[in-house]
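U., I forgot to send this yesterday:
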Amino acid sequence: MLWLHFAFLNVWRNARRSVFTMLVTAIATLAIMTSAGFALFTYHSLAEKAARDEGNLTISDPRFFSDEEEVPMAFGLKDVESIRGQLLADDDVKAVLPRLNFTGLVSNGEKTAIFIGLGVEPQEFHVKGPFLDMLQGQPLSSFEETRPQVVLAQGLAKSLKVKVGDFVTLLATTTSGALNAFDFEVKGIYSTGVPDLDKRQLYVDIPSAKSLLDTDKVSSLAVYLFDIDKTADKLSQYAKRFPAQLVTPWWQRAFYYQSVRDLYNRIFGLLGAVMVLLVFFSISNTMGMTVTERTREIGTVAAMGGYRWETIRNFTLESCIIGILGALAGIALSFLLTWALLQLHIQMPPPPGSSKGYPLTIEFSWPLAALTSLILTLICVLAAVKAAYKGSSKNITEALSHV
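Result:
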């Protein structure tokens, strides 16, 4: 503790230089924490969105994602209720929702467009939360309707020039290769935030989709868990329980998430490396000047019987104090910035392929703060050892005569 006290006093022998070096370390810590916090928020948001859209796990025919169907529902799932019952018996499962993917033509009587249809249970709109921005009308509901209902994406509704309450005709190919058509009432119009999807997508209820395609199968089962962190454990568990089906975790289908993660890792990794180098050179400069100014002091200590390692230890402790204080200041600034952004509600522009912006948020992480502080402190120690080793290499006579 005595040596630590002396090191603390030595730090403030040249307060201006020490404060400047701490400021550089604090700015580097702030930059790393801010960029990494933004990346973490983006990762977690995209992961939650991917798991919410597709389910934490998807159970399907092994050929569903890899092969092309020659006829609709060739790779559909049978005996769905049995599989669903086994999954719902698991306390970690929030919901199991069947999906039916199909395509065809939609017409208002005057104009026809291609659509990408999703047959879902009305419960999906409650389980997944507000994943759609309902612009008009309502999503599919659970009560019995007098006629088939459909909700259209904004671009598709605009192309057909229809509104809530109008009727459209859906034409699709059945599992036997025949054409089938049903009239649907438009119950709602929504936006996904993705212009390409808004031009083609629509939702209908599962019974109507099955009747349109003349099938008793579904395309897949989406399994929703209460805790996204348990996805990997459930993946291995369900893969053994249902060997005849393919169990796919959300991250294997989250292509946008994977692309963004790879891009951000490279960008912010490079930024972090630049910040570390900045701190290293700043500390090296500070400690080099300090060692040069105290060369005669180093020679005096050596003449009195001091060991070389003691000299290196003293400068290392000083550098450690500068690094720790600077890192703590940077963490405090990062925490304040995180809080300020939550209060200001600053909006980011829409990302590529989307028409909706999102709030600028930085995720504050204590493990990240501890890791950043440790790395920057180690960088400070390395810079101090380098400078102190060079300064203590001079012989006593040369050091005492240094001017």
